[in-house]
Amino acid sequence: MKSLRHFTQYLKKIKNNYLDILTMSDKAIYAIYDDDYVLLESAKHLVSKGIHIRDVFSPFPIHGIDPVIGLARTRIAMTAFIYGMCGVTLALTGMWFFMIHDWPLNIGGKPNFSILTNIPSFVPITFEFGVLCAGHGMAITFMLRNWTLPGFKGRNPYPSTTDNRFVMEIHAGDSDLSAEEIKAFIDETCVLEIDEK
Amino acid sequence: MEYKVSKHAKLTTIILVVVGLLSLVAGIAMDHNHHGVSGRLWANLLVDGYFFFTISLAAVFFLALQYVSEMAWGVTTQRVFQAIMAFMPVGAVVLLIVFAASSLHMNHLYHWMAEGVMEEGHENYDKIIAGKSAYLNQPFFWVRTILYIGVWMYFANWFRKNSLKEDKLNLDGAVSPVYKKAIIKGVLFIAFFAYTSSSSAWDWIMAIDVHWFSTMFGWYAFSGMWVSMMIVAVVMVQYLKKNGYLKEVNSSHVHDIGKWMFAISCLWSYIWFCQFMLIWYSNIPEEVTYYVQRFNDYRGLYIGTFFVNFMMPFFILMSRDAKRNGIFLIPVALIIFLGHWVDVLIMVLPGTMFEHGTLGLVEIGMFLTFLGVFIFMVLNALSKAPLQTKNHPMYDESLHLHH
Predict the structure, then answer these.
(1) Looking at the domain assignment, is residue A113 inside a domain?
(2) Distances, alpha carbon B277 to alpha carbons A98, A118, B49, B284, B352, in Å
(3) What is the maximum alpha-carbon separation in chain A?
(4) Residues 357-376, chain B: which have Cβ within 8 Å of A?
(5) Which chain A residues are closer than 8 Å to B302 by Cβ?
(6) Same structural domain for residues A115 and A172?
(7) How far is the alpha carbon of B303 from chain A, nearest alpha carbon, in Å?
(8) A chain contacts of residue B318, beta-carbon cutoff 8 Å
């Protein structure tokens, strides 16, 4: 039951994150900064006023922003482990089938009737295949979760955040405050520009 | 904050030494090998002398690495690494005694030192060993040995002395001159150590199996000493924190040292396996003898250490939380510490004791005795200076480490 509840919460979160972006049902307030440290301090200020910051766009990772805007720790490492283990299993099963079971191959007189006695020669491939699966699986999961796979439409509201701008995205619906109140609070920080779209 | 060796710690070291010596005596009394027990004792002196000496040596290397890479996070734990270096003089004396005894034919650890091995016509003449006489001869061996130990200890001494001197400087915001010099010393040490960590492993350990050689052996010994030292550092930091010291060390520092232990465990496993796999695969008679010996007479210990030293840290310490938590770190650290000691044991015993080598009372006794002395020397050195350095330019940065 607990996991089901988690799952429904998760679905709700995904819905919140993506649905109104795709349908544009809700207007977002964007606070634009020109410095990562200023943005970090402003985010702390806004969060202390009870404002929920949905996302931050920046040209590079801002150290320490995750706990401030309430992002949970990434679970990408866990997926990497699972992908890696899948790769290891797949590689060992494959080599057992190709080289031991289906058509025993005699390479350099190494034992070709049992996977256990021949395991050292399979280790390099197994290792490499584990790394390959972990790396690719992790990258694809990451891009899928961020909706940045090739061909997907970019969700970045301001292309300048890939250059020299740092933008916070705030939705009035996420907190009890009205859009005007939120903008007033943003104005208290060293913000460059407040935009709504 | 000054560290004081607690009564409890002193008692523990004394108990270790006493139990070790008792076990040693019992082991000698129960030894029924018809060749006598002296060979076994010498081999064990070499094992434990080398194991604990190289732990201290790896601490010098890691300290130099901290300076050279301008590593900031490690500054709050720098005194721990400096303390680990303290066993060097004792280890050096033990090693020198073993080598001197070998040179004087009081033991037969190194077959190439035996009489007549290099003389044509002598009954002991061995053509293969004679072919190596340009490198393996007594004068050159002693020049190298003295050079390694002397230079390493000079650097260890320099780092420690100048770090203590740095504490007393009055800088007024200027970058400490000791720090600038230490970077240069660090570069020099690492350049010297890069060659000598390998060649000392050849001279002292690989030369036991004198007909055999492996180009990977130096790295194998080096990664072993490095991971053993990281284990000691992990345990020391946990011990000190549990006793209320090292308040400046936060969970990110613990995490970083844990990561090193994890990473170097993987490096060691990688090199262990590479050395084995290449020789197993090519199956050349003069190379496989080394492994045939180990697989026939020491199979359980030999393969067991690999699995313990690889699987344990790999699976248990893989997650981030485990590397920050003493409950996971300490048991893994203690078990793979024993694992790496057994690894050195299996480097030495098959070539010196042949099929008679075991992991018995003599081995355990010698290990416990050395461990007691090692812990005493390290804690004693730790109590000689404040636990935090002063005036290190990156001390503040290290204090605020957070990830």
Answers:
(1) yes
(2) 21, 11, 29, 12, 24
(3) 79
(4) none
(5) none
(6) no
(7) 13
(8) 81
Which residues from A are below 8 Å from B277, CB to CB? 120-121, 123-124
Residues of chain B with pLDDT under 50: none
Cα of first residue to Cα of last residue in chain A, in angstroms, is 39
Are A191 and A42 a contacting pair, CB within 8 Å?
A: yes
Residue range B35-68, pLDDT digits in tens: 778 999 999 999 999 999 999 999 999 999 999 9
Strand order in the sheet with A166-171: A53-57, A166-171, A28-33, A193-196
Closest CA to B110 of B93, B124, B127, B98: B98
Q: How many domains does chain A have?
A: 2
Cβ-Cβ contacts under 8 Å, B280 against chain A: 120
Q: Which residue of B has its CA nearest to A85?
A: B315
Taking the whole predicted model, whether its pTM rises above 0.95 is answered as no
Span B372-401, pLDDT tens digits: 999 999 999 999 999 999 899 999 999 998
Is A11 inside any structural domain? Answer: no
Considering the domain architecture, whether residues A117 and A171 belong to the same structural domain is answered as no
In the numeric block, which tokens belong to residue A101? 């079971």
Same-domain status, A87 and A138: yes
Residue at A68 is within a domain: no
Tokens representing residue B397 in the block: 């940065």
Residues 138-157 of chain A with CB under 8 A from chain B are: none
Beta bridge partner(s), residue B243? none
**How far B306 CA lies from chain A's nearest CA (Å)?**
13
Residue span of the structural domain in which A103 resides: 76-146
Query: Model ipTM?
Result: 0.81
In this structure, is residue A36 part of a structural domain? Answer: yes
